[in-house]
Specification:
Helices cover about 40% and strands about 15% of the residues. By secondary structure, the protein is an alpha/beta fold. The chain binds 5,10-Methenyltetrahydrofolate. Its EC number is 1.5.1.5, 3.5.4.9.
């Protein structure tokens, strides 16, 4: 039976540290602030942004949730980003995705001050991560949370074979950079990869984010591997499930993240951590 990598517990631990850091900053008169921009009323996005807003306030972080109707125009969202860029009380800005089709996400993300880009999606920050640059810059929060959990559970990265399924800008590509920078041998698969099992069966570390329930079974996984499930799907009975057949895969994996209670809670905790980082870096 595999060790379950507990994202809720890891998040609680990280949030406790973040709350202490916020308290330290308050002594110097600094209150970290995050602004989340939500356009439309996609039910999942409404829940996630509400959770972020609540968690921030609980940790003592100033939080603004700015909502726009689904038919918002590009210019008005852009103007709001610029207001937050110029607002000294806000040091972290996030535009929740997905966005309605009339909005151009690339342009909006590029309008965010890179020093306030808490998602790490601005090309300046993407480039720094890709180049393994030294110094302080934000990185995407889901991969950051995954790296924190791998470290906490002492999963070796240097010298390992890591396989990533899914090449999104949110997860797969930043994960590729982080693991490569940490000296893993990284293979990135996509939906056209011939014989994907050839890769997955040799993976010491398997990271799955494709958006398909039960995409990975025990037969796809190397004995003793670590499996990280980034999927968020609703099954036929409305329950939240990942991309990995958890019951099956936990029989062969050494370590595995559940859904819910794995990568998700750590994403929000890492977002809060990085909000405080940005506040400290801007001092
Ligand atoms: N600009 C931007 N940044 C993001 O970081 C971002 C985004 N857009 N768009 C959507 C994805 C998804 N995401 C999640 C955050 C928390 C949970 C989470 O807390 N999940 C809980 C369960 C929550 C539930 O019950 O629905 C869990 O897995 O245990 C999941 C998913 C952030 N994202």
């Amino acid at each position: 039976m595999a060790t379950i990598i507990d994202g809720r517990n890891s998040a609680a631990e990280l949030n406790a540290t973040t709350a202490r850091r916020v308290a330290q900053l308050k002594k110097k008169g600094i209150v970290p602030g995050i602004a989340v921009i939500l356009v439309g009323d996609d039910p999942a996005s409404v829940i996630y942004t509400r959770n972020k807003d609540r968690k921030a306030k609980k940790l003592g972080i100033r939080s603004i949730l700015k909502r726009f109707p689904a038919d918002a125009r590009q210019a008005e969202v852009l103007a709001t980003i610029q207001e937050f860029n110029n607002d000294d009380r806000i040091n972290a800005i996030l535009v929740q995705s997905p966005l309605p089709s009339q909005l151009d996400e690339t342009t909006l993300v590029q309008a965010i001050d890179p020093a306030k880009d808490v998602d790490g999606f601005h090309p300046v920050n993407v480039g720094k991560l890709y180049g393994n640059e030294e110094g302080n810059y934000p990185i995407p929060c889901t991969p950051r949370g995954i790296m924190t959990m791998l470290s906490k559970y002492q999963v070796p990265i240097a010298g390992s074979n890591a396989v990533i399924i899914g090449r999104s800008n949110l997860v797969g590509k930043p994960m590729l950079s982080l693991l490569t920078n940490a000296n893993a041998t990284v293979t990135m698969l996509n939906h056209l990869t011939p014989n994907p099992q050839y890769y997955t069966q040799n993976a010491d570390l398997l990271i799955v984010g494709v958006g398909q329930p039960n995409f990975i079974h025990a037969a796809d996984v190397k004995k003793g591997a670590t499996v990280i499930d980034v999927g968020i799907n609703r099954n036929s009975s409305g329950h939240l499930v990942g991309d990995v057949d958890f019951e099956d895969v936990q029989k062969v994996a050494a370590k595995i993240t559940p859904v819910p209670g794995g990568v998700g809670p750590m994403t929000i905790a890492s977002l809060m951590e990085q909000t405080v980082d940005l506040a400290e870096w801007s001092e």
